[in-house]
Amino acid sequence: MRERERLARAALARLMEPQDSVGLALVQAVGPLDALGIATGELSAGPAVEREVTALLSQDGSLASWPGLVASQRRWAPRVRDLAPERDVETMRRFGGRLIVPGDDLWPEQLADLGLKEPLCLWWRGQEQAIPPARETIALVGSRDSTGYGSAVTGDLAYGLSQRGYTIVSGGAYGIDAHAHRGALNGAAASMPTIAVMAGGVDRFYPAGNEDLLRSVATQGAVIAEVPPGSAPTRYRFLQRNRLIAALASVTVVVEARWRSGALNTAHHAESLGRVVAAVPGSVHSANSAGCHRLLRDGGAVCVTDVGEIAELSGRSGEALPQDKEVHDGPHDGLSLEDLILLDALPIRSGSSVEKLAVVAGLSPDAVRAGLGRLGLLGLAASEGGSWKRKKNG
Amino acid sequence: MRERERLARAALARLMEPQDSVGLALVQAVGPLDALGIATGELSAGPAVEREVTALLSQDGSLASWPGLVASQRRWAPRVRDLAPERDVETMRRFGGRLIVPGDDLWPEQLADLGLKEPLCLWWRGQEQAIPPARETIALVGSRDSTGYGSAVTGDLAYGLSQRGYTIVSGGAYGIDAHAHRGALNGAAASMPTIAVMAGGVDRFYPAGNEDLLRSVATQGAVIAEVPPGSAPTRYRFLQRNRLIAALASVTVVVEARWRSGALNTAHHAESLGRVVAAVPGSVHSANSAGCHRLLRDGGAVCVTDVGEIAELSGRSGEALPQDKEVHDGPHDGLSLEDLILLDALPIRSGSSVEKLAVVAGLSPDAVRAGLGRLGLLGLAASEGGSWKRKKNG
Q: B139 with B267: CB under 8 angstroms?
């Protein structure tokens, strides 16, 4: 039964495009086996099922585009004759991969946050080890045509986060994605250093120029997709794939992105899931940072510049606040305004009397005497025979 | 009477350091003439005055440090014998300058937003022309040791804002301040292109390396200070001066600042006045942008990258939203998800049938036909004898 349900999900994932709300609502309403029967036209859906699907779509806010189950069946029909889920599972097995479905040990629990948009299944090529929870997973995303700056920053962040035990999720593309995976593989303190979420089938590594990199990701981490083997990475699937990247991680960091960029789509998915969106700033002269600055300006994204600031956003316990990075207070921090005025008035070379200091500082002689005492204790002022001057570190 | 009040304010400004809350409350309670009398000890303040000063300090939140009027008189006493306000006014006149006080035509009305912290008077060296209201005034501030990046961005912003008729306020220092004044002088479409607010007396132009620049600022705009001629620019006065820069402008833009920087102090003044704080992003590898990124991260500052984005924040009427900068929508923007899927499925070279497209796209044949019609109208798809393919701009 459990195996039949797994195969039914695999079949449904071939029948439907990712995030087919009607199909996903149908699965939720009647389970994958009956959903497959209804989707292929072998079973007829009674009015009770139609009502339940309607209710689920309404909850999800997808009702506007709901033309009834019959219309959806027409949509799914052309692909029915190509269904062969056993063959898809066998294909994956040949590549050392597997099919995973909700409830499996490997199923990332954080995908449940997608609600109705949780994928039917995942095709998984890589280590047989679970993706850590969202708070230990960071998404690093950005443009394919990264600059030297973006590449260096991405590599550093991925390496540093990986060293701290975070899993780095990205999309396996050229540019920022590739540098994110590579940096994570180099850092590799976590058991799953990096995950590539693909828009097409994981039977082949796409794009071709990243084949070696993705092979390494599959060896040390995992390469996953919700579309079955053989699926082309279409634009629509890229957009849907982005929701998986956003859902897997607690923080989505956009390192470099143009004013219009797929990475911004991932950021919007993250935002709508209540995940943290962060952006790395860059030169205002770089078109490749314009998308990051747009995210910062529109208020959705947090400005991050190093590993510590990102780690703090993850919500993982034990992460220090980034303010720690500057522990040395200046010698004048914490002085009262009066003492600061007095310090300013103190000469550096020849000393000055209390009375003269009172005039220069605009303080009463009593206040000057008290202040000189405090500054003396702090090592900022010194006296010689009633004549005061500033000490070197003041 | 009016002239005596002006001179009393000038005298009080020499007696007290900037933002001496007790002194300012005293002036508000009894007017400058009696305040000067009490401050110098010529008049005694009755309990009614003490009560009113207490109430004003309490409203201002400065009560914690209030040791009573007698203590303040002791503080002011050492400077009493040096008072010579007529001489100060005469000194300014020799430099072609003047004293202005609240109520004068030249008095910038936006300084009233400082409440009790409004300065007693301003020493003014420059054009006899009012500083525009806050919504037409932008503060550009930042580090003295600016980088090439910060200098170029500051110059561009100051020039562009000045060309649009904004007045640029800054602090007359080396680095970002100097580039702000210089850019504004070059742009100069406003009658007062730029204002330098000094921490020391305006009888001399400080720092010496900016003397020529500040002379130009005084010729085309104004160089102003709340401290009287001859006052040294102490650290305390720099911090107080920053509140004037923040209060004059609707937006304070920090272009480049280190993690600890006086520019951040100006930003905090702006924030506490309810003014807009903006920061220019830069490389995460530049220590000179760390303060800007800190402002962006802590949520107080808006990320700005060009003149248009700053102008929009000013609240001046007629400023376009910065979204205008990219008016060209991509050819696929606004397509429904179904049409996007269909577009993805359309081959570029050899055509495809409706039935085949239905399988590839996962749509019913009817939906494919309707979608092809829409894509055809948009010029994204074309058919030849029932065979459909994508058109070039798709």
A: no
- Asked if pLDDT for residue B363 goes beyond 80, the answer is yes
Statement: B114-325 belongs to CATH 3.40.50.450: yes
- pLDDT of B327 > 50? The answer is no
Q: How many CB pairs under 8 A join A and B?
A: 143
B331 band by pLDDT with thresholds 50, 70 and 90 = low
Please give the pLDDT value at position B333.
61
Whole-number pLDDT of residue B394: 44
CA A200 to chain B, closest CA, distance in angstroms equals 13
**A370 has a chain B CB within 8 A of its CB:** no
Residues of B (326-365) whose Cβ lies below 8 Å from A: 326, 330, 332, 337, 340-341, 343-345, 355, 358-359, 361-365
Is residue A31's pLDDT more than 60? yes
User: In B, which residues are within 8 Å of A15 by CB distance?
Assistant: 362
User: What are the distances in angstroms from CA B206 to CA A168, A252, B97, B184, B210?
Assistant: 52, 47, 16, 19, 7
> Does B67 reach chain A within 8 Å, measured CB to CB?
no
In this structure, how many other beta carbons lie within 10 angstroms of the beta carbon of residue A128?
A: 11
Task: Delimit the domains of chain B by residue range.
Answer: 2-83, 114-325, 337-390
Are A284 and B281 within 8 A, CB to CB?
yes
Q: Which range, of A211-215, A273-277, A389-393, averages the lowest pLDDT?
A: A389-393
Interface subset of B 117-146, CB within 8 angstroms of A: none
- This prediction has a pTM of 0.84
| ipTM for the predicted complex | 0.82
The correct answer on CATH 3.30.70.270 for the domain covering B337-390 is no
pLDDT digits (tens, 9 = 90+) for A288-339: 999 999 999 986 899 999 999 999 999 887 775 544 444 444 556 667 778 8
Q: How confident is the model at residue A393 (pLDDT cuts 50, 70, 90)?
A: low
Q: What is the mean pLDDT of residues A8-15?
A: 96
The two domains B114-325 and B337-390 share their CATH topology (first three levels equal): no
